[in-house]
Every structure is written in structure tokens, then in C-alpha cells.
Amino acid sequence: MKIVIIDYETGNTKSIYNILYHLKENDIKISKEKNDILNADLIILPGVGAFKQAMQKLKDYSLISILQEANEKNIFIFGICLGMQLLFERSFEFGETKGLALLSGDIVKLEAKKLPNIGWDNLKINQDSKLLKGINESDFFYFIHSYALIKSSEVYTLASSIYENNNFSAIIHHNNIFACQFHPEKSAKKGLKIISNLLSFVKERLENE
Amino acid sequence: MKNKCRVIARLDIKNEFVIKGIQLEGLRKIANANELAVDYYEKGIDEIIFMDAVAAYYDRNSLSNIIDQASTDIFVPITVGGGIRNIEDIKQALKAGADKVAINTQAVRTPSFITQAAKIFGSQCIVASIVVKKTSEDFWEVYTENGREPSGKNALSWAVELENLGAGEIMLTSIDQEGTKKGLDKNLIEQLNNKISIPLIASGGIGTLEHLDTIHKYNLDGICLASLLHYKINSIKEVKEFLIKENLIRVEQ
After folding, report:
1. How close is the nearest chain B Cα to the Cα of A178, in Å?
2. Alpha-carbon distance A40 to B239, whole Å?
3. A164 neighbors A150 (Cβ within 8 angstroms)
4. Which pTM value belongs to this model?
5. Which of A10-24, B24-38, B225-239 is predicted with the least confidence, judged by mean pLDDT?
6. ipTM over the 0.95 cut-off
């Protein structure tokens, strides 16, 4: 399976590479090249930092149209943290910024006394999914964010989480797109399980084609 | 849902070994850094902080190899600190596999560095490290150079300033308590936490499980353990079992 981690200087690409390598994947590219991305079986969009700057980097590297094209080709896309947020229509961080708009919904600021939300928290499972195999509501995942997808289509949200009374989407899935607000690559064994489930899901789909 | 407190292992490194001192002096070799870090990860630690204990002498951070290795085996957040002097240092640390950097001395020298770093890498990457010594009633002085140089700054007002500059969280180390195993400076923690609205991690002084009571009383977001774990006074399992009664920590199933 060809995995491409998008390299746009906005994310911990090495951590993601490391966890995939740990899970015995051997065809992993960290790239921003159109050819690599459009020939991938699975694209991973990492993201750490601010929405506006991230979209600017994607624009600078001509990645917006490439990612939209990849989506149209139904290539599997997995967004992590800011990478999840970028998939949506817009964010209200530092004014209003347009996202990739691969999914409908807005990213808004968490209403809380203490921000960012940094730490381990549980999930509330909304839907059954192969991505959630072996995952329970007593498991913890590592979150670090101040913005989130709060009002989202029920159809997208596989699992949600709560921080200071904000109920937000923690894992979403829609057709070829998956995403996590938390960092599965930093969530120890259960984070590894989520990624492993994703890889199995993608492999299964590819075999059936 | 209550805010969960992160149990963090703090590893002070010299020449790829974990060292431990008392009040940041008199360093002793404890264990191989990587082996210890992986062990803590496997036993359920929430985060690991690697501090370059001799960075001040060389005016740079030399932990790239350790971080590089750690990030291939450890899948919880990694912070690196000690000698982070400029944007390039941060870039290198993150490239090696760190998720966050801890900055103390350079922030005191050039406060705008925090703002610049937060703008480029995001606030969540920037941990402002405040190292203090109590000099009089209700006055804690900020020290730089791994606890060697007094700065004249008041810790409480400096914490507020750091938040305004863009730091994502504060790691507070009390020189007086560090390595003594006498517990945290509760007065300091209470006063400081009341002034800021970003997460606060306390470091220095935890020597028994009972000292962990401070977490509940003063709403700490993270607690750094060094002596308690490195000298095997208690295991990570025992720490978490102690904290679990307040439903304040993460337990791996």
C-alpha cells in the first residue's frame, strides 16, 4: 500500500512516519509532489499550528488543487488534528479562513476557561465502524487544540469528546475521508490501534477493487 | 468531564545518560536515557520531557540523537528543553521527533522569541519553562541557565507575561524543592495558577505519593516526576492508582 504523508512544513511528519514504520508499512513517502500524491493509496494530512498559516502553505505548494483532485479520485485521505480541520469549509481562527472544503462544516473556537485543550480524554462512540474495532469509551486519546468541529453532520462523526462542556467531533468518516482531532500517533497503544484499523480498512478496500 | 492531569516523566540528560541532582546541583548518573524512556512509555507514562542538563555550558541543545531514537519507539508526546536558543533549534528539535520545546533562558533574554516561535510553530509547541527560587515571602525569583543565574524577575508576573507572549503552557520548576523529595511549593503553585489561563505543569519535589495531593487541590494540568520514578520509589502504576480515585488521570486498558 502506497502511503504519502503530505509535506507542507506544518506537522510532525516524522512521528507519523515512525508509527507507520512501527506498524510494518514499508512504502511511505513524505512528499508534496503531485505525482506521488495522486498515485497514493492513502494520503495522510498532518497538522500542527494555525489554520491560516497552514492553508497558506498548502496554497504556496499548489497542494489545494492536488488534494481536491485526489479526493475526486476517491483516494483515501486521513487528516490528523489541524489536518482534520483543514478538510472542512472554513475556520474562525484569527478571522475567517477558507479550508479545503472537502467536507461541509466550520471549525470554531472551544469556549473554555483554559485553552488549549491539552491532555488525554475519552471518546463517546456515536457509530459503529471498522475504524473503532477494539476501541472503548474507557480508552484515552491525546488532544492538543483550541479549535474544533462543533456543529457537524451526524453522518460524519464516529466519535465525539467533551472539553469544558464543548461537545466536539473527535473522529469523522465520510466515504474516502477519515480524520481524528486527537493525535493517534501520540496516543500510545490505542492510538496505534486506530491507525492499524485504518490501514486494514484501506487494504481491504484496495483488495476488493 | 474533569480536566485530566498528565503524568510526565522528566529525564535530565548528560552524555546520553539520565542524571539526577538535588536542587539542580550534584548530578548523578542514573540510567541509559533511551532505555529508561521506553520503559516509562511501556509502563503507561503520559508524556516525556527530555532536558539537556549541560546545554547552558555549550549554549545549545544536544539531544537530537536521543529524540530521534525516542520518537521511533515512543508514541506519546515528547518535549525537549535546555539550550533552545533560536528558531533553527526548534526546527531541529521538531524534525528529530519532538512535539514541543521548553524554553527558559532565551525567553528571559529576548521575550519576543516566544512570540516569534509561537507564530511559526504554533503556541501548542511552546512550553515556557519557569525555574524559580523563593527569595522572600510571596516572592519567587526567576532563574536562568538551568538554575544558576538570578534574573531579578518575579515569577508570578513573568508567567502572565509569557502567556501574553504566546506560550502554550507553563512548566514551573522550584529549585528549592527539586530533588529534595519534600513535595511541591503549594503556595507558589496556587498563586501562579490563579494568574494564568494556560495549562500549568509543576516540576520538582515529588518524593512520595502523598505529595501528589497537590494536583487535586490546585488544579494542576501536568506533574513532572523525576526522583520518584528514577530512584524507583514508586512505579507509574502506583502513581496512577493513587490518582485514579479522583478520576483525574489516564489509565491504559
Report:
1. 20
2. 44
3. no
4. 0.92
5. B24-38
6. no
